[in-house]
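Chapter summary example.
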Amino acid sequence: MASRSGRGPIEIILECVRARNRRLILDAVTSFYIFRTDTQQVLARGVMGYDAAREKATQIRKQHGLKWDQVSFKSEKKSRSSWSAPAGGRLDVARNYNPSKRGRFKGYYDKHGNFHDLD
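The structure predicted for these 119 residues follows.
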């Protein structure tokens, strides 16, 4: 019996398995940081992998005698913009949000003073 989307149960199961495997791979190669939840103090950075971050958080918790809810970890955020100004350029981002772009206008000035649009 096919689902509404026209995919059969086998395709749906394969898609779920691929999504799970993709999540496991991302968890293994993602960098995490560990912090105190009450003071927002960063205790460790650059811990690679979810399991390693969990173990490191437990180790720090025991080492400093902290309660379970006082130590947590998050994945380190990557640069939000894939665009950057080349060497010697100054990146400018518009002050106003542009809903049609779901972001802000971006561009840079080169060393000659010419503006280049990055959108």
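To summarize the output: The CA atoms of residues 91 and 108 lie 4 Å apart.
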